[in-house]
Specification:
This protein is of the alpha+beta class. The protein has one domain (10-201). Helix content is 13%, strand content 33%. The protein contains 4 helices and 13 strands. The protein has helices spanning 66-75, 119-128, 130-133, 196-199, and strands spanning 10-12, 22-24, 30-32, 46-47, 59-64, 87-88, 91-97, 111-112, 136-143, 146-155, 162-170, 179-187, 189-194. Strands 4, 8, 10, 11 and 12 form a 5-stranded mixed sheet that branches. It has a 4-stranded antiparallel sheet with strand order 6-7-9-13. A two-stranded antiparallel sheet has the order 1-5. Strand 10 (146-155) and strand 11 (162-170) form a beta hairpin. The longest helix has 10 residues, at 66-75. The model has no long low-confidence stretch (mean pLDDT 92). This is Phage protein. It comes from Lentzea rhizosphaerae.
């Protein structure tokens, strides 16, 4: 992907993680030593804090900005341009790598950390993303409830909480209290794969924001 073009959720080199010290809390959850209300989501889960300096420096395509990913997922915004994702009577539009061999009726029930897309940005993503060029599908999703977070779980340690492993955690999982979240998860339900040819007449433009 060209260095002059980057999806909305991509982190830039000017957006590094903020120096927030983790501490143990009396309820055995983790927190920041100097914590703000905005450091947690409405479920009380702690989030990784990253500088908000969109388009400063160079895009780092291997990194997703936690706050922009979360905003795109919460508001169902296009992951490429940041505008509203496409929706019609058949559901919200998602663009994914083609993993239909993973299980029957894929991607039904999938836990997705990739936000949806708008119609114009489908062609942009297909042209510029090497992974999608290896095989991609567009999917209409009837229901996509927020289900949890992806992040790193921390164990108790002598000096400060210590990272154990990264994974997906449901909001009703007690372990989520010790997770530092980096992405919001929606569960995809009522999925219907839409042939790309059916969308081709409306896939123009993109990345205008």
């Amino acid at each position: 992907m060209s260095s002059s073009i980057a999806p909305y959720i991509t982190a830039w080199s000017g957006e590094q993680d903020l120096p927030c010290a983790l501490v143990e809390r009396p309820d055995r959850s983790i927190g920041y030593a100097s914590e703000l209300l905005s450091d947690r989501d409405r479920h009380g889960v702690l989030w990784r804090q990253t500088a908000l300096r969109h388009r400063v420096g160079r895009p780092e395509f291997a990194r997703v900005h936690p706050q922009r990913q979360r905003r795109a997922m919460e508001l169902l915004l296009c992951q490429v341009c940041g505008g509203p994702a496409d929706q019609n009577e058949d559901g919200v539009l998602w663009l994914h790598r083609d993993y239909r061999d993973d299980w029957p009726h894929w991607p039904e029930g999938m836990a997705s950390v990739e936000p949806p897309v708008c119609l114009p940005c489908v062609s942009v993503a297909l042209q510029l993303c090497p992974a999608l060029r290896r095989g991609a599908v567009t999917v209409r999703v009837k229901e996509c409830p927020v289900a949890g977070v992806r992040g790193t779980i921390f164990r108790q340690s002598v000096l400060a909480p210590a990272a154990v492993t990264a994974g997906n955690f449901a909001y009703d999982d007690p372990a989520v209290r010790r997770v530092l979240a980096s992405a919001l998860i929606r569960e995809l339900r009522g999925c219907v794969i839409v042939p790309l040819e059916e969308l081709s007449g409306t896939m123009t433009g993109g990345l205008s924001r």
